[in-house]
């Protein structure tokens, strides 16, 4: 295979990237995004704060551009994300709404967004990051109003709005077997038992160089064994910068392991890397002194990790 997407297709899997629609005017960026990847996730454009910064005033431009780009390049679309405590518009987070009104606001949001793109989205992160590290539910405007019921309600609303989309719950630091992934396992088990339309679990997999969770494959496997689809949703492997040849090779090995673990798990349908190049990555902005986490370097040249992923697929 000459491209990541061809190699992934031969395995019956997808390989995705987080797409920043604001960068599509950059020819190098859009050529790689469209040519190498078979799925795109909106890095920010489908978050509530991007779509509806003021109540009732929607800004669809970025999300529409992404969906059009995907259609033009024969790509799947991974919707991200309907209900999340972060990157919310201020009017939702600080609105002081009574539960009954917040219920209507959330239902309307899900119906409007999932409804607009119904039929064009393969997978939706209905819920993102609902857990604390110790496995308790994270405090949020939603949890405060409804308790954990907001999770099942969101899945039901998303399913009503887009019955074709596979509905996911996504989180970070759930990559290995630990208190947080145990909580995720209990939650999705109980949702399934209750007949809630949940179809998959996303494992963000924002990794640190040299810290591959030893139970990564076993963890993906136990969720797959529940009959759920499993996706590596936001993979990157960060290191202290500047990088050097030895660490880029070590990174390539770690990327190879992640791909191998997904391929070893029958329910693992694909892997999305969180950004195209190191230049576009969110890492340096959030983890000062770290970066070089993606498959292409600052000049859009493929790194050793690119070759490793192509080879592993
Ligand atoms: C990040 C984006 O990459 C940044 O551009 C933005 O400023 C903040 O959010 N978990 C998620 C993603 O689910 O939505 C986050 O994306 C990274 C962590």
TrEMBL record:
EC code(s) of this entry: 3.2.1.8
Reaction catalysis annotation: Endohydrolysis of (1->4)-beta-D-xylosidic linkages in xylans
Domain GH10: 1-312
Primary enzyme class: hydrolase
Keyword annotations: Carbohydrate metabolism, Glycosidase, Hydrolase, Polysaccharide degradation, Signal, Xylan degradation
Similarity section: Belongs to the glycosyl hydrolase 10 (cellulase F) family.
Protein name: Beta-xylanase
Organism: Streptomyces spiramenti
């Amino acid at each position: 295979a000459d491209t990541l997407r061809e190699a992934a297709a031969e395995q019956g899997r997808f390989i995705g990237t987080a797409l920043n629609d604001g960068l599509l005017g950059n020819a190098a960026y859009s050529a790689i995004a469209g040519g190498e990847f078979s799925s795109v996730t909106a890095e920010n454009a489908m978050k509530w704060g991007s779509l509806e910064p003021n109540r009732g005033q929607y800004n669809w431009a970025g999300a529409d551009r992404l969906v059009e780009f995907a259609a033009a390049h024969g790509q799947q679309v991974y919707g991200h994300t309907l209900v999340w405590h972060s990157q919310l518009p201020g009017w939702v987070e600080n609105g002081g709404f009574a539960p009954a009104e917040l219920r209507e606001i959330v239902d309307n949001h899900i119906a409007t967004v999932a409804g607009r793109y119904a039929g064009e989205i393969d997978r939706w992160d209905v819920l993102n990051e609902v857990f604390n590290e110790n496995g308790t539910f994270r405090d949020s405007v939603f949890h405060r109003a409804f308790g954990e019921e907001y999770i099942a309600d969101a899945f039901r609303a998303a399913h009503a709005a887009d019955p074709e989309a596979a509905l996911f719950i996504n989180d970070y630091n759930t990559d290995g077997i630990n208190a947080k992934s145990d909580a995720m396992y209990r939650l999705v088990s109980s949702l399934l038992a209750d007949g809630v339309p949940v179809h998959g679990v996303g494992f963000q997999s924002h990794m640190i160089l040299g810290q591959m969770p030893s139970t990564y494959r076993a963890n993906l496997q136990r969720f797959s064994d529940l009959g759920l689809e499993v996706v590596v949703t936001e993979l990157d492997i960060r290191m202290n910068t500047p990088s050097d040849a030895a660490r880029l090779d070590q990174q390539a090995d770690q990327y190879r392991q992640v791909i191998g673990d997904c391929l070893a798990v029958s329910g693992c349908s694909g892997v999305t890397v969180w950004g195209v190049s190191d230049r576009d990555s969110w890492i340096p902005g959030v983890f000062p002194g770290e970066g070089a986490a993606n498959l292409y370097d600052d000049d859009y040249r493929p790194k050793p990790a690119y070759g490793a992923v192509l080879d592993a697929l």
